[in-house]
Design goal:
It is built from 14 helices and 25 strands. It has 621 residues and is an alpha+beta fold. The strands form six sheets. The chain has a seven-stranded mixed β-sheet with strand order 3-2-1-4-5-7-6. The chain has a seven-stranded mixed β-sheet with strand order 10-16-17-21-20-19-18, with helices on both faces. Strands 23-24-22-25 form a four-stranded antiparallel β-sheet. Helix 13 crosses helix 14.
Length: 621
């Protein structure tokens, strides 16, 4: 491998690397050879480097590296820059600028899989790894600076000068007063996947025995048809599903039926808020209606221009009715529960057999840590004789617990608590988005809650499943149908220690590399301490209309590519004279897997302002 060292003082660090097998060292410094050679021990180190076949280059400006290396000589596997500094009492702003220009120059010198190592004195970096940690404005903000050149912080560890044979730290431009290396940190940066601007996507499906096309909602373009649950998948969501299926098949006759589930749902889901649905306009042509036209349809639905039939059958099932409106309404399926109910309606079931459905579902939701616009749902349906439903529920939960504990043991030593809790003990505000939405679809008896290292609680975000029962009358007697629904994405996150749901959808290969097929492991984040940027937006709400907060959040997801992690209402004002209402929201932008610069976040904010003005008819302030 080729290693480049920048800003060497006495070349003692470079000399310590030149004996490594399979390593070609190129050592540089800012001064001329004559100036550098006068420094203590520098001449000896230079002779040693040249004697080992290393290259030594002088008068190299780390911000203009392409000026010193021909194109064929620019591919380095690792770049070291130890204790960069502008010199004398230059402030943090000048040193940030030095790092920014260094990273931009390094982007042209590094291999795709290469690393940049930057050693800084304690506190300079501005990350939580610094102890004590400086205030952000008084640090070098190295992670944000590197993001501007497309790099993410993938590792940070102590810079142990005493373990580097022959190394002696010097000061700025090899001055006698050396940098303080006590508590110093080595920051390891790697290339980030680029921020993508997704083009509109057309999806082809079979609908009512004919081929149709529809435009995928922009917020879902990178999430549709990802194939996480396909047979050749190695995604942790697939592994969780397979392990659960194997474990449950030991206790129940089991039948998988997820191969025939349509992506689009026709009609209305009783009790579900219309603004939570991704409405779709199918077309027989490959150039279907645009997303703008889909937005018009949604507006019609939001303001009740489409009338839906609302009926309930004698068994109390959630009704799935086509609208009374003359045109058929379709949406991306928000749940698999209607398909489970359809199995019972068609009597396509065997009493005592556990029918299993799984696949991605799609919901518009507010931006929150456990709110996902798409996730993989696993639904279990079992019809049993009346009076045996409680034992069926207990057996189902026990087997789910057993399989999850078995999976978790291979991953972590943290205690994992799984509880079955009655739904009556919860308010809607205590539920995460998954549980709250399921509560709209049907009356729930139990929540399945899971916590790492916490006993006997069901905190918001920890609900990974729900259980409900419903009666069903047959000529031969009465059955009780047990339904259970699990959020496979939340399960995978809690088992593998994945703190951000967006990481499950990353296109960065470093995620799946951590999960051999059929195995679950504790996830190691490859993007540490990502920078966040805060922007506010205030506007007047249209007179006489209810502000659609879900649409507001969905637009934020779309324009930022899921880079908005928080939206908070920080001020609300009503003008006494006119009654006009003004709202002020604070948006926090942060990526979990990509480099996000201050400029890119600002551009997203400007686009967001434009979109809410056009689509929500607000007046910006």
């Amino acid at each position: 491998r080729r290693v480049l060292l920048l800003g060497e003082g006495n070349f003692s660090f470079a000399a310590s690397l030149c004996d490594a097998a399979g390593t070609h060292v190129v050592a540089t410094c800012y001064e001329s050879e004559e100036e550098a050679s006068r420094r203590g021990r520098a001449a000896d180190s230079i002779r040693r480097l040249r004697g080992r076949g290393a290259e030594v280059v002088f008068s190299v400006d780390c911000t203009k590296m392409t000026d010193y290396f021909l194109p064929e000589k620019r591919e380095f596997d690792r770049i070291y820059f130890n204790f960069p500094h502008c010199g004398r009492k230059s402030g943090v702003v000048k040193n940030r600028d030095l790092l920014a220009r260094f990273f931009r120059s390094s982007a042209q010198m590094l291999t795709e899989e290469g690393e940049i190592h930057v050693a800084l004195c304690n506190g300079q970096g501005g990350t939580p790894a610094d102890q004590p940690r400086r205030e952000w404005h008084n640090s070098w903000q190295i992670v944000a600076v590197a993001a501007g050149a497309g790099f993410i912080l993938s590792n940070v560890h102590p810079f142990k000068a005493e373990t580097i044979q022959g190394y002696k730290c010097t000061g700025y431009r090899s001055q006698d007063k050396s940098f303080c290396v006590e508590g110093a940190l080595n920051h390891v940066f790697t290339r980030s996947m680029p921020l993508l601007r997704f083009e509109p996507m057309i999806c082809e499906i079979e609908l009512e025995s004919r081929k149709v096309y529809f435009q995928v909602p922009q917020v879902l373009v990178d999430k549709i048809n990802r194939g996480f649950l396909e047979l050749n998948s190695r995604h942790p969501v697939w592994t969780v599903k397979e392990k659960l299926t194997v474990e449950l098949s030991k206790a129940f006759p089991l039948q998988n039926i997820d191969y025939c589930l349509p992506l689009l749902h026709q009609g209305h889901l009783n009790g579900v808020c219309h603004s939570s649905i991704f409405w779709i306009i199918p077309s027989p042509e490959k150039t279907p209606r645009t997303e703008a036209m889909s937005n018009e349809l949604e507006n019609a639905v939001f303001f009740s221009h489409v009338d839906f039939c609302r009926d309930t059958d004698k068994n109390g099932w959630v009704n799935i009715q086509e609208g009374c409106h003359t045109s058929k309404q379709y949406c991306l399926r928000p749940s698999l529960l209607p398909y489970a109910q359809a199995i019972i309606h068609r009597r396509a079931f065997l009493p005592g057999t556990l029918h299993v459905l799984s696949g991605p579902v799609f919901r518009k939701c507010l931006i929150a840590p456990y709110s996902m616009p798409v996730f993989h749902e696993m639904v279990f349906v079992c019809a049993v004789n009346r009076g045996t439903e409680n034992s069926c529920i207990q057996m189902l939960v026990n087997n789910i617990k057993t399989s999850i504990h078995s999976l978790h043991k291979t991953v972590s030593s943290f205690k994992l608590d799984i509880n079955l809790q009655e739904a009556v003990s919860f308010e809607t505000t205590e539920l995460n988005d998954f549980a709250a939405f399921e509560s709209q679809l049907s009356e729930i008896q139990y929540f399945i809650c899971m916590e790492r290292g916490i006993s006997g609680s069901c905190e918001k975000g920890s609900c990974v499943g729900i259980i409900r029962t419903a009666p069903y009358e047959l000529a031969s007697g009465e059955l009780v149908v047990v339904f259970a629904s699990l959020n496979l994405d939340l399960l995978a996150m809690l088992i593998c220690g994945i703190s951000d749901w967006r990481m499950l959808w990353t296109s960065d290969a470093r995620f799946l590399r951590q999960f051999p097929r059929g195995e679950l492991r504790l996830f190691k984040n490859f993007s540490l301490y990502p920078p966040s940027y805060v922007h506010d937006v205030s506007f007047w709400v249209p007179d006489g209309e209810q502000f659609d907060e879900i649409a507001f959040h969905t637009i934020a997801r779309q324009v930022s590519g899921e880079m908005v992690i928080s939206i908070q209402l920080i001020d609300s004002f009503q003008q006494p004279e006119t009654g006009r209402k003004s709202l002020c929201y604070r948006l926090t932008f942060q990526s979990c897997d990509k480099a996000l610069s201050h400029q890119e976040a600002a551009e997203m904010q400007l686009l967001f302002r434009k979109e809410i003005e056009q689509r929500l008819y607000v007046t910006l302030r």
